[in-house]
Amino acid sequence: MDRMIYLSMSGAKAAMSRQDVLAHNLANASTTGFREELAAFRAVPVRGDGASTRVYSLETTVGYKSESGAVQPTGRNLDVAMKGNSWLSVQGLDGTEAYTRAGSLEVNAEGLLVTHNGLQVLGDGGPITAPANAELQIAPDGTVSATVPGAKPQSVGKLKLVTPEADNQLSRGADGLFRAANGDLAADPNARLQDGALEGSNVSPVETMVAMISAARQFEHQMKLIQTSERQEQTAAKLLSANG
Question: Which residues contact 72 (CB under 8 A, 6 or more apart)?
Answer without folding.
Answer: 197, 198, 199, 200
